[in-house]
Specification:
Blueprint lengths: L5 E2 L2 E2 L4 H17 L2 H20 L6 E4 L4 E7 L2 E6 L3 E6 L5 E5 L22 E4 L5 E4 L4 E4 L5 E4 L5 E5 L3 E5 L16 E8 L4 E6 L6 E2 L2 E5 L18 E9 L2 E7 L5 E6 L13 E7 L5 E7 L1 H12 L5
Antiparallel strand pairs: 1-2, 3-13, 4-5, 5-6, 6-7, 7-22, 8-9, 9-10, 10-11, 11-12, 12-14, 13-14, 14-21, 15-16, 15-18, 17-20, 18-19, 19-22, 20-21
Length: 318
């Protein structure tokens, strides 16, 4: 007979993490065995089947980038910058929020805005910038668009808070082309890579098991139910949001991707160079399985940023 704690010649041990997992497993089994649990299980199965039928199947895909700038059309608060294979709408609102929409994406209809889209800042105008690019200058923020589609959000003093590199789309190879250049379909997957200051720190993305501070890692944008309790590493939880609050010495900004599709956000904190060493900027990769590539950016002090966010999407429910 094996001595206590030994089975089949192998030492059996259980630490606190194993104990928590065992308790969660037992709790989950008890929940499933109830009538309510069975109904939830059937509902989840039906949703998964509906997704499998309704969501597009991924076959051969073709990659696309914006290409070189072709021209621009001024609009109230900004304008549309046209590229060889896409277009970008930039609009600054009267409250200082910046909207960016690729491939013809408009602010509305939106699942998140509280009421109609804010009025444009009539004083902000689209004007030529150096290097063949364009820019929109307002009282609170400056947005520059390079000739290949890099978007920079700057403070009024010219300090870069966020640099969004040219996006990339993947579209089905057999899909019909857009009705006109710069208009893509919602079924295209896309990736947006961004750079922030070396000392920037990330917060947000909805409810996360690790808390509001976001460390280096991959965060999925999809709602799940961890089954009553959770611990760090159990993400995603039941309320994820494509919202990041980025705090740096040069300033704070909030970025919100108005998109309800499944996706992931990969974060990497930067590193300040010691002495005369070069800084390594922080990085963010936002990858979505479809939907429009559109987002809002709000800059300022943390209090002003949060005020602008609630003005845009409404006050939280209490």
């Amino acid at each position: 007979m094996s001595p206590p704690g030994v089975g089949n010649g192998r030492l059996i041990s259980m630490d606190a993490r194993d104990l928590v997992r065992s308790e969660k497993l037992v709790r989950s089994v008890k929940v499933v065995c109830t009538a309510r649990g069975l109904r939830s299980l059937r509902s989840a199965w039906r949703r998964r089947r509906a997704d499998a039928v309704g969501l597009p199947r991924r076959g051969t895909e073709l990659a696309r980038v914006p290409g070189e700038v072709q021209g621009a059309e001024p609009e109230p608060g900004g304008g549309v910058v046209r590229f060889a294979r896409s277009s970008l709408r930039v609009r600054v609102t009267a409250g200082g929020a910046v909207f960016c929409g690729w491939d013809g994406a408009e602010p509305e209809p939106s699942y998140a805005l509280d009421g109609p889209c804010p009025e444009a800042d009539e004083r902000a105008e689209l004007e030529p910038d150096t290097g063949g690019g364009w820019r929109v200058v307002s009282e609170r923020v400056t947005v520059t668009v390079s000739r290949n589609g890099t978007v920079e959000v700057r403070t009024p003093g010219g300090v870069v808070l966020r640099r969004d590199l040219p996006p990339r789309w993947w579209e089905p190879a057999g899909a019909p082309g857009p009705a006109e250049p710069g208009l893509g379909g919602d079924g295209a997957r896309w990736l947006q890579r961004s750079e922030v200051a070396a000392d920037a720190r990330f917060f947000g993305l909805g409810g996360r098991a690790s808390g509001p501070r976001l460390r280096d890692g991959v965060y999925r944008l999809w709602n799940t139910d961890p089954g009553g309790s959770f611990e760090p590493g159990d993400d995603p939880l039941y309320l994820t949001m494509p919202v990041q609050l980025v705090v740096a010495g040069a300033g704070t900004h909030l970025v919100f991707h108005d998109n309800s599709w499944d996706g992931t956000v990969t974060l990497r904190e930067g590193e300040e160079g010691a002495g005369s060493g070069h800084d390594r900027p922080g990085g963010c990769r936002t990858r979505m399985e479809g939907g429009p590539l559109r987002y809002w950016v709000i800059v300022g002090t943390p209090a002003r940023v949060l005020h602008g966010w609630t003005a845009l999407t409404g006050a939280p429910a209490v």
